[in-house]
Amino acid sequence: MEAAVTALAQMADNPGHAARLAIRSGAHSTHTAGLAPGYVQANLAIMPAADAQAFQTFCQLNPKPCPMLAIGAPGDPSLPSLGKDIDLRTDLPGYRVFRDGVEIDVNDDISGYWRDDLVSFPLGCSFSFEEALLLDDIPLRHVERNECVAMYRTNIDTTPSGKFGGKVVVSMRPMKPADAIRAIQITSRFPNVHGAPIHIGLPEDIGVTDIENPAFGGAPPRMRTDEIPVFWACGVTPQVAIEHARPSFCITHRPGHMLITDLKNSHLSVI
Amino acid sequence: MEAAVTALAQMADNPGHAARLAIRSGAHSTHTAGLAPGYVQANLAIMPAADAQAFQTFCQLNPKPCPMLAIGAPGDPSLPSLGKDIDLRTDLPGYRVFRDGVEIDVNDDISGYWRDDLVSFPLGCSFSFEEALLLDDIPLRHVERNECVAMYRTNIDTTPSGKFGGKVVVSMRPMKPADAIRAIQITSRFPNVHGAPIHIGLPEDIGVTDIENPAFGGAPPRMRTDEIPVFWACGVTPQVAIEHARPSFCITHRPGHMLITDLKNSHLSVI
Question: Are the CB atoms for B199 and A182 separated by under 8 Å?
């Protein structure tokens, strides 16, 4: 009873912290969509010392697809600037562990893999700006359909750093023209979660030749004739860079199984 | 000699005022493009008491095509909030005088037409945001070609007020997608000079069926395949509303012959 009251109080005070505790305890074990609404969720990449600096530079050189929300201290699984008592070894409901670029494990606890030289990179995620779009009554097709957003490989090169490089991956949301203009205004306020679109209309210009056949995300967007495609730089870009770089060891979040923080999405807005 | 020194000092101190003095004296008698660069130029509509309130409400209900920069006091040809010593009867290089909706005179001095009940409406003009776009290295086709921007009638209704109404007129600038996104960001900062675009791509959706045949402005924009059309609400909208309303008497600026103010374009930016 006392524990339940404490948990309720925590949830009211700090929904991000409450969600992490639920994940840490195993009470929540699936994807994080809809958890702690209003709070920032982050992609996660964890690199060993040998690759951390090159990956960090890759993110700094490519801030639109790889917006760093914080940088962990070497060997430290906490992230005090993003939330109270974060333990990156247990607080995500899913992780992928890679050795030499090959996935060797998928689990919900990486305590056994933790090392003193690991550096954590939480990266901004489009969930944050999508919330702002929905709050402004801009329809999002994939949300209405409960599908993953459509994502595409482009012909746009990232700026490489060491062995990290490759093309920019984009997510695409079909919008009516007036909504597209409004979406550009709204997402411009969120530079730490991909910011403004990088392309609009004319998919062929960025190497997207078949809009109804996304490379990631699965479901075709089924564009309507009164819509234009609006493209944002996407957090899959660093994942593709990691797969190409094949670091000797690294850990990422499992897709959709994000780090929930104590930051409000609205607080990421710069204006 | 002393007068020349004074004029030079004024020009250095206040280029807007210096330009108005040159126009008032007849030293400058043509269009105002390129005069007092960096300073706000305004469209002008002057209405008699019988129509002033309805026109003012029309502008307030349709702020994107009709952004009011100030409102003159009845019978007062000055506009102290827009500039030192403005005399609206002499300080524009060209006026059109209408009676019952018919143009009865085009001249450079309306002192003989001035009345105690006339109310002046200076309206924001796209010159201001075009300057901001050019300063950010966004190419503007019509500026490069020294042509008038392409303008079109749309199927979008203005919100009517009394006898003032009709469709929204838009100006269109062809842009590469990345420039279009940047242009939306930049012009969003300038709500008093038409602000963000009202449409992008898909001209047919707003009733523009032949993009290479503008209704106003003359020259076809000659769209390129790597460009999309970006549409802004246009200051020709109130002119069309006036032509339809046929007020018993009114005066407007002659196209391209604008009121030059003491306000810097950059000062209109809200962010």
Answer: no
Question: For residue B116, what are its two tokens?
Answer: 């105690």
Summarised one tens digit per residue, pLDDT across range B204-257 is: 999 999 999 999 987 899 999 999 999 999 999 999 999 899 999 999 999 889
pLDDT in tens, B26-55: 999 999 988 999 999 999 999 999 999 999
Q: What are phi and psi of B17, to 5 degrees?
A: -65, -45
Could you tell me which of B60, B66, B6 has the C-alpha nearest to residue B42?
A: B66
**CATH class of residue range A130-236:** alpha beta
Tell me how long chain B is: 271
Architecture of domain B2-125+244-268: 3-Layer(aba) Sandwich (3.40)
Does B199 contact A at CB distance below 8 Å? yes
**A177/B200 Cβ within 8 A:** yes
Cα separation, A159 vs A121, whole angstroms? 18
CA-to-CA separations, A85 to A109, A118, A242, in angstroms, rounded = 16, 18, 28
| Residue A230 to chain B, least CA–CA distance (Å) | 10
Q: A228 vs B201: CB contact, 8 Å cut-off?
A: yes
| Closest CB from B188, B199, B200 relative to A200 | B200
Query: Per-residue pLDDT tens for A161-211?
Result: 999 999 999 999 999 999 999 999 999 999 989 999 999 999 999 999 999
What is the pTM (predicted TM-score) of this model? 0.88
Q: CATH 3.40.1640.10: which residues of chain A?
A: 2-126+239-265
CATH classification of B127-238, choosing from 3.30.70.360, 1.20.58.2050, 3.30.70.1230, 3.30.2040.10?
3.30.2040.10
Query: For A2-126+239-265, CATH number?
Result: 3.40.1640.10
